[in-house]
UniProtKB/TrEMBL annotation:
Compartmental location: Nucleus
Record-annotated SGF29 C-terminal domain positions: 113-251
InterPro entries assigned: SGF29, SGF29_tudor-like_dom, Tudor_SGF29_rpt1, Tudor_SGF29_rpt2
CC annotations in GO: nucleus; SAGA complex
Keywords: Nucleus, Transcription, Transcription regulation
Protein name: SGF29 C-terminal domain-containing protein
């Protein structure tokens, strides 16, 4: 393409030279015409100059046509190069997109799958401070999970007076504990282990210590004997399903 470009420039320069010669030839012919007496020698000279002018015009036309042809060819080469560049860019973008997709796939494979709790599952949640100054843990049901903010929308099990539903609010993932499945295997905590447990006849969970786990009692049972904090050392029976390992902040 560079050689063709140089050739076009060379032909354009040649065309300019021919045009300059043509101007000189025209001026010479004009000079002979201005003579008062045109002798036979002058006539012969003019005839020679006319022939030379016609020949020069033909050369000028041929060079101009050749230049046009070269410019068309040069234009095609430029378009092909641009198309090739665009195609290359598209291939690179496609490759980059594919690589990015593979990277995302690898990241997703490495990233452990989150156990998002299903809708209407009963859970234990820590109340937000703006709703409960003491930030107690209560029974609630999952309404939905908001992925963008990484929070659950939940509903208090304890219904609001004269309402069909309990209070609804948002709570962080870290402040939600899923209850063990009924009838399934439940982790058993040993004596003196710190837990949070459902206080009898309420929907609230409070700190407590295990006195006797189910397997250590004289009868077959699913209940713990435990003692809640600030409960005058009273011994309470609580279903194992509602006895959970105390969060680190409460131990």
């Amino acid at each position: 393409m560079e050689k063709l470009y140089e050739l076009v420039n060379k032909k354009l320069k040649n065309l300019e030279e021919i045009k300059s010669e043509g101007v000189e030839l025209y001026n010479t012919i004009e000079g002979y015409h201005n003579q008062i007496h045109i002798t036979p020698d002058v006539k012969d000279k003019l005839l020679e100059l006319y022939r030379k002018g016609i020949n020069q015009t033909f050369k000028e036309e041929m060079i101009a046509l050749s230049i046009c042809k070269d410019i068309d060819e040069l234009s095609e080469l430029i378009i092909k190069k641009e198309n090739s560049s665009q195609a290359k860019i598209k291939r690179l973008k496609k490759r980059d997109a594919k690589s990015a997709g593979l990277e995302d796939e690898i990241k997703n494979q490495k990233k452990p799958k989150e156990n998002i709790i299903k809708k209407w599952k009963t859970v234990v949640v820590k109340m937000p401070k703006e709703l409960d100054e003491e930030e107690n843990w209560i029974l609630a049901k999952i309404i939905c999970f908001h992925d963008k903010v990484r929070e659950y929308e939940v509903e208090d099990i304890d219904k609001v007076k004269n309402e069909k539903h309990g209070k609804q609010f948002m709570v962080s993932m870290k402040n939600v504990i899923e209850l063990p499945g009924q009838g399934g295997h439940l982790q058993e905590f040993p004596r003196s282990h710190r837990v949070i447990a459902l206080y009898p006849n309420t929907t609230c969970f409070y700190k407590a210590s295990i006195i006797i786990p189910p397997s250590k009692q004289n009868i077959r049972t699913q209940y713990y004997l435990l003692s809640f904090d600030n409960d005058n050392d009273a011994v309470r029976h609580v279903d194992a399903q509602y006895v959970l390992d105390a969060p680190n902040e409460l131990k």
